[in-house]
């Protein structure tokens, strides 16, 4: 998978390459997803601009909701892409797999599920409690 038992004890060059390839592949997938969502958003705007004659309040509301949904999707994709970009940077710095909060190693299982994780489970829970 993305990580192996070497997390927390050092990684071989092959492990680093595997992790780097996986993170970069996901980053590239998100870039393609963003480009496609951006193209769809632009088409939606063109249709909206060209098709406003005779719109009532319901039509305007629907178009606004569609535009908001498209913008929300774009922001979510950009956020996820930034997380993978950050993970790639951490990998290059040698801090990938270590919690940014407490400095302990992030469990392998967490990194396999969420490769861009920057905190251990405990620190993540503490952040969520404070945010609530």
UniProtKB/TrEMBL annotation:
<protein>
    <submittedName>
        <fullName>TraR/DksA C4-type zinc finger protein</fullName>
    </submittedName>
</protein>
<feature type="domain" description="Zinc finger DksA/TraR C4-type">
    <location>
        <begin position="94"/>
        <end position="129"/>
    </location>
</feature>
<dbReference type="InterPro" id="IPR020458">
    <property type="entry name" value="Znf_DskA_TraR_CS"/>
</dbReference>
<keyword id="KW-0863">Zinc-finger</keyword>
<keyword id="KW-0862">Zinc</keyword>
<dbReference type="Pfam" id="PF01258">
    <property type="entry name" value="zf-dskA_traR"/>
</dbReference>
<dbReference type="InterPro" id="IPR000962">
    <property type="entry name" value="Znf_DskA_TraR"/>
</dbReference>
<feature type="zinc finger region" description="dksA C4-type">
    <location>
        <begin position="99"/>
        <end position="123"/>
    </location>
</feature>
<keyword id="KW-0479">Metal-binding</keyword>
């Amino acid at each position: 998978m993305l990580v192996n038992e070497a997390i927390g004890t050092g990684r071989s060059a092959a492990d680093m390459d595997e992790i780097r390839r996986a993170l970069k592949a996901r980053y590239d997938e998100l870039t393609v997803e963003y480009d496609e969502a951006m193209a769809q958003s632009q088409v939606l705007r063109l249709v909206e601009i060209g098709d406003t004659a005779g719109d009532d309040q319901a039509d305007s509301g629907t178009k606004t909701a569609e535009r908001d949904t498209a913008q929300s999707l774009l922001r979510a994709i950009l956020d996820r892409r930034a997380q993978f970009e950050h993970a790639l940077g951490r990998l290059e710095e040698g801090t990938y797999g270590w919690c940014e909060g407490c400095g302990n190693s992030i469990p392998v299982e967490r990194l396999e599920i969420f490769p861009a994780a920057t905190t251990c489970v405990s620190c993540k829970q503490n952040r969520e409690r404070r945010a609530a």
